[in-house]
Amino acid sequence: MTRGGRVKDRDTPERRCIVTRATGPKAGLIRFVVGPEGDVVPDLAGKLPGRGMYVAADRATLEKAAAKGHFSRAAKQAVKAPPDLAAVVEVRLARQLVELIALARKAGLALAGLEKVKAALVSGQAALLIQAADGSARGRAALRSPPGENSLVSCLFGHELGLAFARDSVIHAAVLAGGLAERIRDEARRLAGLRGEGLGGKNFGAEDFGASSADGAGDDQADDAAAGEGFRPERQTTE
User: Fold this and answer.
1) Which residue ranges in the chain fall short of pLDDT 70?
2) ∠ CA 70-42-209 to the nearest 5 degrees?
3) Predicted local confidence at residue 134, as pLDDT
4) Mapping DSSP to helix (H, G, I), strand (E, B) and coil, where does residue 28 land?
5) How many CB atoms lie within 10 A of CB 225?
6) Most buried in the list 1, 56, 94, 214, measured by CB within 10 Å?
7) Taking every pair of C-alpha atoms in the chain, what is the biggest distance, in angstroms?
8) b/e for 7-32, b at 16 or more Cβ within 10 A?
9) For the segment 191-233, what is each residue's pLDDT rounded down to a tens digit?
């Protein structure tokens, strides 16, 4: 049982946050290791060698870990944590989330465009609804997320989500059921923790993502035009 009284799931790996000392699933934490130069290195994939130090996926907690010497205490040695560590982690999480969505698209498990997304939701095929954080409130209200916990992803901006579909911007997307949907759900939860409700952190663009977003350009542009995809405040979504 965790400090909060929650019963542990024996099948879910758990770790303790070095700041809050609370135990939780690894999917809700960010792993760090000490690099060769004695610096703190984020290990988002959890594969780097060395003893892992886990911090809750929360901006305030991560900033406290960097500022108050928690990494040095956990590592039992002096380590260097940059003051902008939270911003660095945020950009990397956003990039990783976009790459996962792009992978799902290439596998035929992710789609974009209002009409396509609506059809996937109505048919019950969609496991996740992804809505750009800077999309219009009216447009976002036109779609209802699938049943299930954390089935709405809204921590990416339109231009970031567009990178996954090789477009300038995407407002509505969906991910079909499968293993990638669960990975995307987990990464979205971590990114949302860093960005918070206000989404006031550092977003990233094509220069951060690399050239891979260009692969498959134009796959669904006709659907975008029909659905009114993009930043258009006057757009009506009454369907």
Assistant:
1) 1-11, 197-239
2) 145
3) 94
4) helix
5) 11
6) 94
7) 59
8) eeeeeeebbbbbbbeebbeebbbbbb
9) 999 998 544 445 555 455 443 343 433 333 434 433 333 323 2
- Reported as half-sphere exposure (CB side, CA atoms, 13 A), residue 145 has a value of 14
Q: Which amino acid is at 164?
A: A
For the record, the structure tokens of 64 come out as: 């406290």
Q: Domain ranges in the chain?
A: 14-83, 86-227
Amino acid code (one letter) for 79: V
- What's the fold here for domain 86-227? 60s Ribosomal Protein L30; Chain: A; (3.30.1330)
Query: Which residue(s) pair with 42 in the sheet?
Result: 32
Select from 127, 129, 173, 182 the least CA-distant residue to 153: 129
Alpha-carbon distance of 126 to 18, in angstroms, equals 36
Tell me which amino acid residue 30 is: I
Q: Which of 57, 134, 45 is nearest to 90 (CA)?
A: 57
Residue 114 and residue 229: Cα distance in Å, rounded? 7
Structure tokens at 205: 């663009």
Residue identified by tokens 């951060």 is 208
Q: Which amino acid is at 73?
A: R
Separation of alpha carbons 122 and 197, rounded Å: 28
What is 14-83's CATH topology? Hypothetical Cytosolic Protein; Chain: A; (3.30.1230)
Task: Tell me what pLDDT residue 204 has.
Answer: 54
d(CA 98, CA 91) in angstroms, rounded, equals 11
Please choose, from the candidates 107, 88, 86, 85, the residue with its C-alpha nearest in 3D space to the C-alpha of residue 184. Answer: 107
pTM for this prediction: 0.79
The angle at the Cα of 104, spanning 9 to 149, to the nearest 5 degrees, equals 35
